[in-house]
Recover the amino acids of this structure.
């Protein structure tokens, strides 16, 4: 496939995943019950509940992202950029005010929005390459850190931590916790697999074979699917893949099967 | 312009790499006003194995029961696509942790009453009661740590507030 087409497809996939991830996050935040709201937006200005204000902001985010997606599809560059920038500004405002309840997916989402916005300053060719490359590098760093931190942890190496995590009501399923506690070999296998799958991404990144990196990315995607089912971390499932086109691009540039 | 963008992104990349090392985190936090630097260690080195539970009582009477703020959700497959509860859950964990950190610094409970985290917990319980048409003029709360789900084991009381008029 021609190089510029490859970049355009990668950019479009990444962009639509950013929009989908932001849409899901906004809809989920908007549907939070009233008495939970202070745990999500804990900044207090007045004693009255400010949920209505946040619903307005979330509504504007939805409008911005729908227009962004539409204008990108219609190839109307100026309007696409205007709505994308407004989406970034609104999401950043919401992100800054949420001083609690943020996770890694929220951070990657805001980094994606900010890096895409910053790269609007560049001409079309570099805009896409730099934005995708930055996100790819961030997520390779993420999987490397997570893999190494687990590899160095005696708890993870011993392989008996998963029943504790699944035994919590925050990230657990009681039946699974009971089951894996009864079968320590399965628990050890699952713990060690998590380390292996995460480290497979940075390792295959340095192997000059595109199938190896694709295989590693498929593995980590299945891992995210598993954590969405078992731990309820669904936003990782549809946020982290937004950087996969960037990882493939960087891998291609590094091993010369994609050339500028 | 290309050079400017590359420099900004390169600085951020270096900072986020250093941020993965605990030693640098407190220094970098000073400059990271927007909280953009990500910590990618996820459940490592020591995985999260305890739950915080928030309990309250609306009378000073020592014989009255402690009630739990409704915050447990049964597993449902739909959470692969739809799980708004995770934001509340993570927010609650963060607020409880922040309040415990404040407690180490400010040991006077009367002063702690003015903490944002303390006020937010009181407000959340107040709204929870209001939704259920339970009248209360004063309440106190406690944060306990627990282990397990069905076979719940209370581990310790990590925070207990004074009675507060609402």
């Amino acid at each position: 496939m021609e190089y510029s087409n490859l970049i355009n497809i990668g950019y479009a996939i990444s962009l639509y995943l950013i929009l989908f991830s932001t849409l899901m996050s906004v809809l989920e935040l908007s549907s939070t019950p009233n008495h939970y709201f202070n745990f999500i937006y804990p900044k207090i200005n007045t004693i009255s509940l400010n949920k209505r204000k946040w619903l307005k902001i979330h509504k504007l985010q939805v409008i911005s992202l729908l227009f962004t997606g539409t204008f990108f599809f219609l190839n109307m560059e100026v309007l696409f950029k205007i709505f994308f920038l407004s989406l970034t500004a609104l999401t950043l405002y919401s992100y800054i005010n949420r001083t609690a309840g943020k996770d890694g997916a929220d951070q990657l989402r805001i980094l994606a929005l900010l890096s895409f916005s910053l790269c609007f300053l560049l001409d079309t060719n570099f805009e896409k390459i730099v934005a995708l490359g930055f996100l790819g590098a961030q997520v390779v760093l993420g999987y490397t850190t997570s893999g190494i931190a687990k590899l160095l942890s005696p708890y993870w190496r011993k392989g008996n931590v998963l029943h504790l995590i699944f035994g919590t009501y925050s990230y657990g399923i009681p039946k699974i916790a009971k089951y894996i506690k009864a079968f320590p070999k399965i628990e050890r296998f699952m713990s060690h697999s998590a380390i292996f799958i995460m480290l497979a991404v940075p390792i295959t990144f340095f192997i000059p074979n595109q199938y190896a990196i694709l295989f590693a990315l498929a593995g980590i995607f299945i891992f995210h699917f598993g954590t969405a089912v078992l731990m309820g971390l669904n936003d990782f499932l549809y946020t982290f893949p937004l950087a996969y086109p960037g990882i493939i691009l960087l891998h291609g540039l590094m091993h010369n099967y994609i050339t500028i | 312009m290309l050079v400017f963008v590359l420099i900004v992104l390169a600085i951020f990349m270096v900072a986020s790499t250093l941020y993965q090392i605990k030693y640098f985190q407190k220094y970098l936090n000073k400059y990271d006003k927007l909280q953009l630097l990500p910590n990618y260690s996820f459940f490592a080195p020591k995985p999260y194995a305890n739950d915080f539970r928030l309990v309250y009582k609306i009378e000073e009477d020592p014989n009255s029961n402690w009630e739990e703020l409704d915050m447990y959700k049964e597993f449902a497959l739909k959470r692969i696509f739809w799980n708004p509860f995770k934001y509340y859950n993570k927010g609650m964990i963060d607020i409880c942790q922040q309040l415990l950190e404040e407690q180490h610094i400010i040991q006077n409970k009367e002063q702690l009453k003015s903490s944002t985290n303390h006020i937010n917990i009181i407000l959340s319980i107040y709204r929870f009661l209001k939704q259920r048409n339970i009248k209360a003029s004063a309440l106190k709360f406690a944060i306990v740590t627990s282990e397990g789900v069905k076979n719940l084991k209370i581990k310790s009381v990590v925070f207990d507030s004074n009675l507060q008029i609402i």
Q: What stands out?
A: Chain A is about 75% helix and 0% strand. The longest helix of chain A spans residues 124-152. Chain A touches chain B through 76 residues (CB under 8 Å). Chain A has one domain: 3-254.
